[in-house]
Amino acid sequence: MAPALIEPIQPIALPISSKILSFQDAPRPTYAQATKRVEYEPGRTAVESLEFYEHEDLRPSFPNLHWEALEELPYHDKGLQGDPRFRNLLASATDVFDYNPKIGTEIHGVNLAKLTNAQKDDLARLISIRGVVFFRSQSELDIEAQRDLGAYFGKLHKHATTAIPKRSGLEDVHVVYTDGTSKDQRAVFAPTFLWHSDVGTLSAIIAKSANKDGPPRGGGGDTLWASQYAAYDLLSPSMQKYLEGLTALHSAHMQADGSIAAGRPVRRDPIVSEHPLIRTHPVTGWKSLFFNPGFVTNIVGVPKAESNAIIGYLNEIISTTQEIHVRFQWQKNDVAFWDNRVCNHSASYGFAPHRRHAVRVANHAERPVFDPAGKSQEEELNARFGLLQVDKDGARQSNYND
């Protein structure tokens, strides 16, 4: 897995009988107030105390449990029931905007703890289209409400190796936690390796993560997502056709070995799964790359040198193509929903010594399949909006676009 990861000020309503102060009534500022200046230290954000923590029960634990192998279950994507215009979800919204054309949408004014089923269906549809959807300041979405919301979309997943909360009965919650006492792991992983989709060895997973604390603004710890719809659309037609006929091996053994080396239990035996390298999304019908840098070990049916070249090329596409990325700066009680079927994500380092704490639930979805009748996201949207189709001839002469 990737490295382990403000309350709004409420207005005070004055009683009707409250006196309206005149200029003469207004208190004069003290000398300290009048001379107050903004203090700023470049590259340094104040560190919050770790002594008392309101979410102590959601801190990580690694109980020695063992779970049976997962079974494939029937799955119906709730997004198929969603309104194409998202009118239910957006009925109470005060703002909605995309981060960029390829991936990432933020919605304001919607209380996730009080969604109707119709709103949940719209949300599922929006996630399948935009890849990741963000909501700010969801203070009413406690862990029970988060689990209930996740379970609406499908059976909740229990992770084989990562942390679960200290509080019992939350075995289907994945904990992301790092603070000032945690080891710095920047030297352990190559940046391209940190990009991943959760539990890629299984059938596809849809995840919902709620940030509980920090880092404060400017303290780092952002999460980045990459669209695998857009990654597929970056490929030439010939490369698309070639990869559509290939499958890849996704292995959970490295993750299990890492847990054992750290003295932690492995709660489910690791497996190796074979999945198509290009898949088709059941809601959108769009083709996407289905490649997981942290888990894919081999491309099936080709020489090892060719397999390594494909893996290296796809790693570069995912990790270095900025227009397919969205970057989110977490604040307290923010929530992100993303579709692991069409997204990779990566945490970012550099947030020490701040605490970074999130709790995540994820539900099982369908086994990845490739449908030759699937479409390109980019080509479909360009046609809908009257835009020119992209010229993929890299041999053309062009000036650099700064």
Structural commentary:
The structure is a single chain. Residues 1-26 have low confidence and may be disordered. The chain is built from nine helices and 17 strands. The strands form five sheets. A seven-stranded mixed β-sheet has the order 2-3-4-15-7-17-6. It has a three-stranded antiparallel β-sheet with strand order 14-8-16. It has 402 residues and is an alpha+beta fold.
In short:
With 402 residues, this protein is of the alpha+beta class. It has nine helices and 17 strands.
What order do the strands of the largest sheet run in, or round the barrel if closed? 2-3-4-15-7-17-6
* Structural class by sheet pairing and helices: alpha+beta
Q: How much helix is in the residues?
A: 10-25%
The largest pleated sheet is described as: 7 strands, mixed
Layout of helices and strands, plus pairs?
Elements (H helix, E strand, L loop, with lengths): L30 H4 L25 E2 L33 E4 L6 E4 L8 H14 L1 E4 L7 H11 L10 E2 L8 E5 L12 H4 L10 E9 L9 E5 H7 L2 H8 L2 E5 L1 H9 L10 E5 L1 E3 L6 E3 L6 E4 L4 H17 L4 E4 L6 E5 L3 E5 L8 E9 L12 H9 L17
Parallel strand pairs: 3-4
Antiparallel strand pairs: 1-5, 2-3, 4-15, 6-17, 7-15, 7-17, 8-14, 8-16, 9-10, 9-13, 11-12
Features:
402 residues, alpha+beta, single chain
